[in-house]
Amino acid sequence: MSGVRGPSDYTHEPPRHPCLRINAKEPFNAEPPRDALISSFITPVDLFFKRNHGPIPIVDDIERYRVSIRGLVKNSIHLSMADIKNLPKYSVTATLQCAGNRRTAMSNIRTVRGVGWDVSALGNATWGGAKLSDVLELAGIPKLMGVTSYGGKHVEFVSVDRCKEEEGGPYKASIPLSQAANPAADVLLAYEMNGEVLIRDHGYPLRVIVPGVIGARSVKWLDNINIIAEECQGFFMQKDYKMFPPSVNWDNIIWDTRKPQMDFPVQCAICSLEDVDVVKQGKITISGYAVSGGGRGIERVDISVDGGKIWLEANRYQKPGVPYIPDDITSEKWAWVLFKVDVEVANNSEIIAKAVDMAANVQPENVESIWNLRGILNTSWHRVRVQNASPATPRSNL
Ligand SMILES: Nc1nc2c(c(=O)[nH]1)N[C@H]1C(S)=C(S)[C@@H](COP(=O)(O)O)O[C@H]1N2
Ligand SMILES: [Mo]
Questions:
Q1: What cofactor does this chain's UniProt record say it requires (predicted)?
Q2: 232 and 308 part of one domain
């Protein structure tokens, strides 16, 4: 009906960059190599991580595409892409991070359920589109409204992809109306990524971007927007993407006891080195990314090259050469910062990175203390181990 449909198999998947590391093939889940991630502040579209729960939807006729806004509102409306593009266009640079980022390292402690990810299940893009607050206004919901006169308190986004978790139904999620109708929250209905038309993998023709919130709420291939009284009852809100304590296992879990995860916590990772890496003796440059949720900028990134005894502060930047100042109005509040520091490393040492956000939240020291059965939000100190390549490693004569 809306001009976009979810196929039932994987015969119509789009082409993908050969550099991506595939964590699951069907549905397609892939991330770029660590060093590719930090080669630019803006992540190129083809290297941006792809996180799917079903086959990629197909748009047969963009002219026929409509997104409807309905439910507990005065006016139900159906908007074409032209209607959406008629609204003021905003560009928001925001980091999208999957809650499962760094899951593999958590599963090394104790088994968790979910697709394994290294440290690259995130990316930083400039999203172009209409503000959701402007779209809601067309349906009769004034800006900054927390509840409609019909009792609507949540905004549900429904897609068209077919997910096995939803028993073949579409992916869906919701955010509070107070956030959706707040222009300062920068929630977008995005049709562009890095200045180009959104590609199929990232939600063509239209997706939601909820800055500062786990990626799971940024619904791709938008079909309907429903104004509802309670939060969305879909699988990905109620039976997934919730944070449980280490004591909860699959035998004693009670999903209702926790709220769906929204903001992501402070996070950072070293991307210039693999988990165990061989480096030349002496000085090396360590670099990576740091980001926090909820619009809390990064205050500091601390690096240790001796397993956490001595710490030094890394340089942070968003534009190369321009120092990052967290509360400066020119710093992009939803975007990551990249960090860099030159250090002298001893043979066989552990290098650690930890970030501190503007609210002085700091990453937890050990993954054990935040282990959870779904393996989400592994934000523990990022550790890598380096061994020096001896300068005169003899090469075998062929
Ligand atoms: N319709 C739909 N939207 C979705 C998903 C999905 O499977 N289907 N995955 C979500 C999750 S878990 C994440 S992390 C992000 C990933 O966005 P990306 O693939 O554009 O990087 O999309 C979110 N939106
Ligand atoms: Mo995700």
A1: Mo-molybdopterin
A2: no
